[in-house]
Design goal:
- The protein is α+β, with helices and mostly antiparallel strands and 112 residues long.
- It has helices at 13-22, 70-81, and strands at 2-8, 29-35, 42-46, 49-53, 56-65, 89-95.
- It has one domain: Alpha-Beta Plaits (2-Layer Sandwich).
- It has 2 helices and 6 strands, in the order E-H-E-E-E-E-H-E.
- The strands form 2 sheets. A 4-stranded antiparallel beta sheet has the order 2-5-1-6, with helices on one face. It has a two-stranded antiparallel ribbon with strand order 3-4.
- Strand 3 and strand 4 (49-53) form a beta hairpin.
- The chain is elongated.
- The N and C termini lie close together (9 Å).
Length: 112
C-alpha cells in the first residue's frame, strides 16, 4: 500500500475529489495548509501599503491506496489539478507498512 499526499490549489479540490471517485477512490483526508515553493509567495497592496505574502493557501489531500491503483490515481490527480501555472503543487508517495481500522480491528487492505 502507498500513502499519497497531494498539495494542490484550493479551487481544484472538488474536481480532484470527483475524478478520484470516478476511479473508485472515495476515502481521503483533506487539510487546509499554507506554504510556498519556488514561487516564494507574492506581494499584495493593502490600504496603500505593499506587503509580502510568504505562505500561500493550499489544500493537502491524503490517500492510502493499494499498489494497483497508484499509477491511475497519480495520473488523475496530475491531470485534474494542473493549471499550467506556477504553484500547481506537488505529490509525495510513501510506503505504508500497516493500517488498522480502529472500529473493527481490520488490518491492511481490509482496513482501507
Amino acid at each position: 500500500m502507498k500513502k499519497v499526499e497531494a498539495i494542490i490549489k484550493p479551487f481544484k479540490l472538488d474536481d480532484v475529489r470527483e475524478a478520484l471517485a470516478e476511479i473508485g477512490i472515495t476515502g481521503m483526508t483533506v487539510s487546509e495548509v499554507k506554504g510556498f515553493g519556488r514561487q516564494k509567495g507574492h506581494t499584495e497592496l493593502y490600504r496603500g501599503a505593499e506587503y509580502m505574502v510568504d505562505f500561500l493557501p493550499k489544500v493537502k489531500i491524503e490517500l492510502v491506496i493499494q499498489d494497483e491503483l497508484l499509477e491511475q490515481a497519480l495520473e488523475v490527480i496530475v491531470d485534474t489539478a494542473r493549471t499550467g501555472k506556477i504553484g500547481d503543487g506537488k505529490i509525495f508517495v510513501t510506503e505504508v507498512e500497516r493500517v488498522i481500522r480502529i472500529r473493527t480491528g481490520e488490518e491492511n487492505e481490509e482496513a482501507v
